[in-house]
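Revision sheet: C-alpha cells.
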Amino acid sequence: MEPNTADPREIAELFWETSASRVAVACSAGPDSLAALSLLANATRRRNRTLVAFHIDHGWRGTAAAEADAAVVLSVASSLSLSMAYATSIPPAHGSPEMRARVGRYLALTELCIQFDIQEIVTAHHADDQIETRLVAILRQSRPSAFEGIRSSRALSKGIVLRRPFLHTTRDKLREFAPYEALHDPTNDDVRLTRNAIRHNIIAHIPDPTRLEAALSRLANVAKRIGEFAKDEASTHACARVIDEGLLQVDIASWSRLSPLARDAVLEHATSDDSTFPRWTPGRRELLDSAVGVRNLVASSGAPRKQRIIVEGPHAYFDVFEPIAAHLERTTDHEFIFSWGQRRVSVRWAGRGAPIHQVEIAPVRPGLRLESGERLIDAFRRTAVPRVWRARLPVVLSGGVAVTFAGMIPRKCEEPSATMKVIEGPAWPNWPGR
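Predicted:
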C-alpha cells in the first residue's frame, strides 16, 4: 500500500487476515483512535476474534477531563458491543513530557494486555504521524535508524505485539469514520510540545504535504542503508557493554577506531535492553568521544539525574547516575532486608550501637567517616574501589557514621556492627581490594 492512498476500511479488513485472536485498541477518546476502534469492530463481525478497547489516563488534565474521556471511550465501545478496560499511566520521573507520557502509556497498556490475555495492541498512528516523527528525528539529530520513522509493528513485551495498521492512510481519511462522540484534546494545541509545534507551525503551512512525505520516505531509505553499514562495522568492534544499572563500559582503544555512525550503532545495541539509559544522540556520543586520549576524567552534568563520564585505565564509563533511595522490606531482631536499585540486600546487625530502627541505609555522600574515624574516601582508595562505583554503593549509617558499605569490613573494626551482602540481583563488583 502506498501512503495517503489506502482506504481505512480496506486496511481494517486486511488487518484481521493476519491478526491474533485477541486484540485491543488503545483509545484516547480522540477521533483517530475511536475511528480505528469503529473500523476494526465493524470488520471483525464476520470473524471469530475478540476485540476490546483500552483507555489510559495520563493524569495531565484533571479528574473531570479524565472521567469525561473514559466515559466517551466506554460509550463508543458499548455501542459496538465491545468491552473496555481502563488504567492510569505511571510515567518515569525524568524526560520530556512527551517521552514520559509515551513510556507510561505503553507500560500501562502492557499491564492491561497481560491482565486480559491480549496478544496484540493496535494504535491509530497514520501517515501524518509518520511525517511528524521523521521531522522530530531531524530536529533532534537522531541516529540513522530514527529516520525510518514509526514501525508498523514491534514487540511490546513477551507474547504481546504492538501494531499500527493505519500508517498508510491520512489523518483526514481516518477521521471520516470517527464517531460523533470523539473529543478534541486541548493538549494537542500546546505548541510548547515538539510534535504540536511541528504540526501547527510547519506542516500546516506546506501546500502539498504528500511531497514532503515522499521526500522524507526517500530520506528514511537512505538513512536505513547508512544504518546497516554502520551496524556491520559496529558488529566487528563490540566495545561497549552495560555492567550495571545505568552504567556503560566502553573500551577506549576499540572505540577510537570506529566511525561516528558506527559508534552510535554500538551504543544503541549495547543499551537497547536497559531502560535507564537516555536516547542516544550525537551530543551524548560526543561526550564519550571526549574520553579518547584522556588518562583521567570525571565530568558530570544534569540534576537530579546526572550523566557522568569517567575514565579509568583502558575504559571509559557513561554513567546515568541518580542517588538511589533504599526501600526497607523486612526487619528481624538481627537482620533487615532492603531494595537498592536492581538488588535486594541483607544487612546483619550485631547489636552494638544504635537500635536497628535508628539505622539508615543511604547513598554515599561527601564527608562520611567510618566507625574507626577513617574517612570513607580514604577507605575507598585503600581498598581500590574504582571511582565509578563509589557513588553507587550503599552505606549503613548510625548517627551519621558509616558502619559499613557494600560488604566491606572497615579497618580497625575486627567485629563490625553490620555486614552487608547481595541476596538477589547483580553481585557487587570484584575490585582488587575485596
